[in-house]
Amino acid sequence: MLIAAGCKDKTPVEPELDPIAGNVETPSWTAPESYDMTASMTAVIKVDLSQTYPKQVEKEGWKTGEGDLIAAFSGETCIGVDTLGADRADLFFLFMSGLNEGDIEDVQLRYYSMQLKNIFKATELIPFRNDAELGSVSEPYTPEFK
């Protein structure tokens, strides 16, 4: 006769973490096609993942990657989008546009990470100014996201 017995005093094994921390599909953000007012930004993304994804960050690290998106919003209207290409390291080149300067409220940036499959919002709003240039290749603007 065979008797099955469970293991006693065995420490449970923590399950492997899925590298995909979220389940958000790639957003279909689109920028306006016609515009009179423009501003540009050269940016490097900084995301505080310590609270939301501490184990993924510790285990796998985190970095921007090909296909990641940054978008600028005035209210809920998208006024600019850029997709990170493999040829650009971690620099985003975002062009923001609108018909009239007064029509655009402060700009909120949103970032989509392909690695984490999640959308993050910038912690600060940016005032929109026509012909403004935020950041450069040598000194990129570094918005923080949560």
Q: Any overview of this molecule?
A:
- The protein has 146 residues and is mostly beta strands.
- The protein has one helix and nine strands; from the N terminus they run ββαβββββββ.
- The chain has one helix at residues 54-60; strands at 37-43, 46-47, 69-74, 77-83, 92-98, 107-113, 118-121, 133-134, 144-145.
- Strand 6 and strand 7 (118-121) form a beta hairpin.
Measured between the Cα atoms of the first and last residue, the distance is: 59 Å
Order of helices and strands: EEHEEEEEEE
Bin the strand percentage. Answer: 25-35%
Given as residue ranges, the uncertain stretches (5+ residues, pLDDT < 50) are: 1-20
Radius of gyration: 21 Å
Overall outline: globular
Number of helices: 1
Mean pLDDT: 80
Helix-strand category? mainly beta
Query: What spatial order of strands do you see in the largest sheet?
Result: 4-3-6-7
Please estimate the helix content.
under 10%
Biggest sheet character:
4 strands, antiparallel
Strand tally, please? Answer: 9
Summarize it.
This protein has one helix at 54-60; strands at residues 37-43, 46-47, 69-74, 77-83, 92-98, 107-113, 118-121, 133-134, 144-145. It is mostly beta strands. Strand 6 and strand 7 form a beta hairpin.
Name the features.
1 helix, mainly beta, 3-stranded mixed sheet, single chain, 146 residues, disordered N terminus, 4-stranded antiparallel sheet
Spell out the blueprint of helices and strands:
Elements: E1 37-43, E2 46-47, H1 54-60, E3 69-74, E4 77-83, E5 92-98, E6 107-113, E7 118-121, E8 133-134, E9 144-145
Parallel strand pairs: 1-8, 2-9
Antiparallel strand pairs: 1-5, 3-4, 3-6, 6-7
